[in-house]
């Protein structure tokens, strides 16, 4: 095990898993509207991502590709939830956080976003194919990479949720708040569109 390789792997994982995508767009929006109530979506997202990483590690990605209908249904559910989030974000009243927003996110919605996230499979597959962390033991190497990716996802996604929470607490002018809401809504809508492509 080489510490330099571990740090390089962690940096690569942080860049890949921390770059904006459907999960991060959802975390920003939910943090903005619900504050720390978004931890429900966050927890589900982490569970879904951990399973997605594990599925890739044990080769279940090829099995999922053999059943495209199931993958397509999960993708549509994920995109549908993102569209719903975009609508909620665009229509949230300026200057207040509606009480109804507290029910927007759930453990299950986060789980679906995580497990149906194509970026997670591609990112983990590319990280698996990167440098070897444990010589002469492929199973331990894969297990270590899975563990490190789960830890990185937990940290970077919590950071993105924190950004959303900070945006909720920021004292913004009404016009600035409306522009921010529409920008977040547009970002989420784009993530939904890319999910379907």
Short summary:
The protein has 197 residues and is mainly alpha-helical. Helices cover 78% and strands 0% of the residues. The termini are far apart.
How is this structure best described in words?
By secondary structure, the protein is an all-alpha fold. Helix content is 78%, strand content 0%. The chain is built from 9 helices and no strands. The longest helix is centred in the last third of the chain and has 32 residues, at 138-169.
| Shape by Cα distribution | globular
Number of helices: 9
- Unreliable spans are 97-103
Total strand segments:
0
What is the H-and-E element order?
Answer: HHHHHHHHH
Mean pLDDT score, rounded?
79
Largest beta-sheet characterization:
none
From the alpha-carbon coordinates, what is the Rg to the nearest angstrom?
A: 18 Å
Specify the helix fraction band. Answer: over 70%
SSE-based structural type: mainly alpha
Q: What percentage of amino acids are in beta strands?
A: under 5%
Q: Span between N and C termini?
A: 39 Å
Number of separate domains:
1
């Amino acid at each position: 095990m080489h510490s330099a390789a571990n740090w390089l792997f962690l940096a690569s994982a942080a860049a890949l898993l921390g770059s904006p995508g459907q999960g991060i767009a959802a975390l920003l929006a939910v943090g903005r509207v619900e504050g720390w109530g978004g931890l429900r979506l966050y927890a589900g997202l982490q569970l879904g991502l951990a399973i997605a990483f594990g599925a890739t590690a044990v080769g279940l990605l090829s099995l999922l590709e053999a059943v495209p209908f199931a993958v397509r249904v999960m993708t549509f559910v994920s995109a549908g939830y993102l569209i719903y989030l975009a609508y909620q974000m665009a229509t949230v009243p300026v200057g207040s956080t509606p009480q109804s927003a507290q029910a927007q996110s759930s453990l299950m919605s986060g789980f679906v976003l995580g497990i149906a996230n194509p970026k997670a499979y591609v990112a983990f597959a590319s990280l698996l194919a990167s440098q070897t962390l444990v010589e002469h033991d492929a199973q331990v190497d894969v297990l270590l990479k899975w563990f490190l990716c789960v830890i990185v996802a937990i940290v970077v996604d919590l950071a993105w949720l924190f950004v959303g929470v900070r945006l909720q607490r920021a004292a913004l002018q009404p016009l600035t708040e409306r522009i921010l809401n529409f920008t977040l809504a547009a970002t989420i809508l784009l993530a939904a569109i890319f999910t379907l492509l």
